[in-house]
Amino acid sequence: MDMINAILIEVLGSIAENERLKIRRRQREGIDAALKKNVRFDRPAIAKPENWDTVVKQIDAKETTVSQALQTLNISRSSYYRLRQNNPF
Fold first, then answer.
1. How far is CA 62 from CA 26, 43, 68, 77, 80, in A?
2. Which one, out of 25, 28, 41, 49, has a CA that is 20 to 30 A from the CA of 17?
3. Domain of 10, in residue numbers
4. What whole-number distance in Å separates Cα of residue 17 and Cα of residue 11?
5. 56 and 27, same structural domain?
6. Quick check: 58 and 64 in contact, CB under 8 A?
7. Residue 47 lies in a domain
8. Which residues are CB-contacts of 64 (< 8 A; sequence separation ≥ 6)?
9. Average predicted confidence (pLDDT) for the chain
10. Is residue 72 domain-resident?
């Protein structure tokens, strides 16, 4: 009885492993096809707010703080610093 259980477990494990390999292969094929079509997989870029230049100039001139600017721009702190790094002015 133990031998039958061991054989059954081996067979089921082998089937599961083959299924997982098929899934990974199909996933890789899909990713490769998307890359050929120039599909981007990273986060979508956030748009610069309309009043970005004005607010950044105010921050640089120390007329306002970053916290106040975040409320004015209606964006998160991480988005502000990401935009600031990519678009200083």
1. 55, 32, 11, 18, 16
2. 41
3. 1-42
4. 10
5. no
6. yes
7. no
8. 55, 58, 72
9. 91
10. yes
Q: Does residue 32 belong to any structural domain of this protein?
A: yes
CA distance 18 to 61: 63
pLDDT interval class at 44 (50, 70, 90):
confident
pTM of the predicted protein model: 0.53
CA atoms of 69 and 76, how far apart (whole Å)? 10
Dig out the tokens for 3 from the structure: 């031998």
- Cα gap 5→37, rounded to integer Å: 48
Shared domain for 38 and 5, answered yes or no, is: yes
Q: Taking 70 as the threshold, does the pLDDT of residue 88 lie above it?
A: no
Extract the tokens encoding 81.
């610093």
Q: Is residue 1 part of a domain?
A: yes
Helix pair 77-86, 66-73: axis angle to 10 deg: 90
Angle at 12 between CA 6 and CA 16, to 5 degrees: 140
